[in-house]
Structures are given as C-alpha cells and as structure tokens.
Amino acid sequence: MSTKIAVFVGSLRKESINKRLALAVERLAPKEFTFEHVAIDGLPLYNQDFDADYPLACKHLKQTIEAADALLFVTPEYNRSIPGVLKNAIDIASRPWGTNSFAGKPGAVIGASIGSTGTALSQQHLRNVLAYLDVAVLGQPEVFIHFKDELIDGEGHIANEGTQKFLQGFVDKYVAWVKRLG
Ligand code: FNR
C-alpha cells in the first residue's frame, strides 16, 4: 500500500532551490512513498468572508491535504519568516473554523536558502504555526541547507556526497515517523 505525501514548496519561483530540495528528498524515499506537490499559486488571498461559502479552489486544497497520509513542507525564508504565499495556503486549509485539514497529520519542515542560516528562522516560525494546527512535526534532524553552486540540480540530483548522506538520514527518520504516526 502506498503512503501519500502532500508536499508544500513555499516558493513559486521556476528555478526554486526549495523545489530542487523537495525533488532530492523524493528521490531518496522508498518506492511506496508517493509525493504530490500541492498547488498554492492559484489560491485567492484568504478572507474570513469565505467561511460562509468556501471557494472551489480552497475546497480542493483542503481535499488534497485530507487525502494525504502525511505532510512535507520545504520552504524558503523571506525576511526571516515564512513566505506569504505559503502562509496564505495554510490559513485557507485551516478554515472554516472546526474543519482544520491538517489536524493529526505527521509532517516535517525543511528548507534551503542562499543565506548561511539555511531558513532556520522561517522553519521556526512554521513549526509554531503547525503546532497550533495539530501537525506532529518531526523534531530531528533539522535540515537547514545553505545552498551553494549547483548543490542540487533541477531534477533533484545531489552533487555533494556529504549532503546526500545527510539528506538520506533525514528521509529515513521521516519515513519511520510517518509509518509510526500515519
Ligand atoms: C530572501 N532571501 C532570504 N534568505 C535568507 O536566508 N533569509 C532571509 O530572510 C531572506 N529573505 C528574503 C526575502 C525575499 C523577499 C526574497 C525574495 C529572498 C533569499 C532566499 O534565500 C533566496 O532568494 C532563495 O533562492 C529563495 O528560495 P527559492 O525561491 O529559490 O526556493
């Protein structure tokens, strides 16, 4: 039986290094793990008036998350926090009140940045949000990738053996976490 992972990449950029990191992780995962990238670019900006009659795109987002066994967030850091486009998607999926689509799912947060802090602050903010939304986020290992040169290519191939081993260690822990809690 396959295990479905809903992947949130917090960048809309075509050449996103976080999208590359997500692809690298997917390559290292066992075959029974399937990954669906959740579309967060076509969503409206959340407005509490939606709650009376939720827009179709928002309902679709919620269904995609609810159908997943687990979550993976791969996010850049924007101004020491979470990109707005990702926070918007999370806000939408958390509502209407009482229908939080994330509740009880296992998940993990990782990220890559061109800065030396490797998205540490963005991830810390995201962990806070996800704790409130009742997501069981893997504690360790933390994955703060300082992206240099062509560390990961557009298809998720990793250029550096040390990074490959490190990410394999993360994937092994994540798979065990999802199997335990899923
Ligand atoms: C950044 N970047 C950035 N990097 C960082 O390490 N800490 C930060 O606070 C920020 N802030 C920030 C704000 C905004 C608006 C932008 C556009 C960028 C740089 C960031 O790491 C870099 O652009 C990455 O390439 C973004 O990830 P993606 O889009 O390649 O996945």
Summarize the model shown.
By secondary structure, this protein is α/β, with parallel strands linked by helices.
Account of the protein in words:
With 182 residues, this protein is an alpha/beta fold. The protein has one domain: Flavodoxin domain (Rossmann fold, 3-Layer(aba) Sandwich). It contains five helices and six strands. It has helices at 17-28, 56-66, 84-93, 120-132, 161-181, and strands at 3-9, 33-37, 70-74, 106-113, 136-137, 144-146. Strands 1, 2, 3, 4, 5 and 6 form a six-stranded parallel β-sheet that branches. The longest helix is centred in the last third of the chain and has 21 residues, at 161-181. The protein binds ligand FNR. Ligand FNR is lined by residues 11, 13, 16-18, 76-80, 113-115, 117.
